[in-house]
Structures are given as structure tokens and as C-alpha cells.
Amino acid sequence: MSSSSYEGRHRAPGRHRAPRRGARIPVGLKSGFLLPSAAAAALVVTASGATVAESAPTVFDLSGSVAKTRAANAAAAEFDRVESEQQREVQASAAATRATEAQRIARDAERRSIAKKQAAAAAVRKAEAARKAREKWVPAIAGAAFTSGFGWRWGKMHEGNDFATPVGTPVHSMSTGTVTFAGWESGYGNKVEITYWDGTLSVYAHLSSIQVSVGDKVDPGEVVALSGNTGHSTGPHLHLEIHPNGGAAIDPAPWLHAHGLQ
Ligand SMILES: [Zn+2]
Question: Does 106 fall in a domain?
């Protein structure tokens, strides 16, 4: 056991070299190795080829079918996707159309509502104007002088007001009413009674001419007679009586004043 013999074994020339990958084929044996390898490879190829050849139709059919199926599935999915998208678009479009239509209907309804309210308001104004025209009061005669009042006169009750006026002066209905008397009556001479819309009854007496008949409808200002001097009269004048609700006569002066007629 000397150190020289140990080193002699472990320091053999050619042993200390860089490691190599894989086994090194001796140069002299290379062609000898390759030949059997090539033959084996050829055999393997042949065997594989035969295997492939035998199973080829099935394999190709299967893969083709799978590809076709996949393609069909993909196409179907794409079709579904496109169709769904189109349906969504159609639904969105229909929803938009419905919304627009709903807005139009709402606007039309609002316009009709406004027009209806305006028409109703106009009808109310028209009815109010018609009512005011129907219920307005006008003087029985124009420019006549008040000469004698309501009350006891020469031991006798004078139930009206007298207005001196030339014979033939037009005498008007004071408002809307109905003629309830038209004719001669002792003392009054030619007399016209009108019952107005509010129930008031007026008497016109000593008339020279009567131009209406019982039952006639008269309007405010309508000429119903001409003044005169008929009956118990001391001179041409209009005798006017006012009977609220057709009852007893009252002093016409305050009534005329209250109705803006004096
Ligand atoms: Zn009188």
C-alpha cells in the first residue's frame, strides 16, 4: 500500500477529462450500428404505415365527423348568438316603438284634455255671458220725467210711478220674460203685464198701442208697446208698477235704483 501505487491507479492518463453527454460510439463501429438501426426504423415505419393504412379510413372519418360536428356546433352557436342578438335588437326596437307610441298617446290625451278644459271653460264663459244678457235689466222708457210717486194720492192708493212722455214713445221690456196680460183694463186703459225670469211682474198702463200678446217671450229692451194717455189719465205718461213675485205692488223707485235703472 504505497502512495505511489494509489496515485498510479487514480492518475491514469486519459481518465481526467471533461464529462460527455451520452455514450460515445466508437468510430469503428458507427456504420455497423447504423445499419441495424436504419433497418429497425424501416421496419417500424412499415409497421406503423401498415397500422395507419389499416385504421386510416376509420380514423379519418372519425376526425372528420368530429370536425364537422364541432364546426356545425360552432355554426349553430354562432347562429343562435346572431339570432339572439337580432331578437334583442327587434325587442329593443319594439320596446322603443312602444315607448314612442305611449308618449304620442300621452301627448294626444294631454292635448285632448287641455282642449276639453278650454272648450268647457269657453262653454262656461259663453253660458255666463248668455245668462248675463238674459238677466240684464234695462229702462222701460228712455228720457222720461218722473212726475208722480208711489203712495196715497187724492184719497186713493197710487200703486206705481208715473213718467211724463209724449204719446207714441216706445216702451220696452225691462228684462227677459213672458207677457202675462195684454189688453184693456178699466182705469189702466191699454195695459201690458210682463212676468220676468226672477218672478218680478211689471205693469205698463195708459198705452196708446200694444205690440205683444199674452204668452209672448220677450227679451230685455224689446218694444212691447207705445206710451199713451188711455184710461184714467190726466196727460200723456207711462204708469209703471212693480210686483215682486207677482204679489202686492211696491214703490218702484228703490227697486229701479237697485236694478240700476234710475
Ligand atoms: Zn200712475
Answer: yes
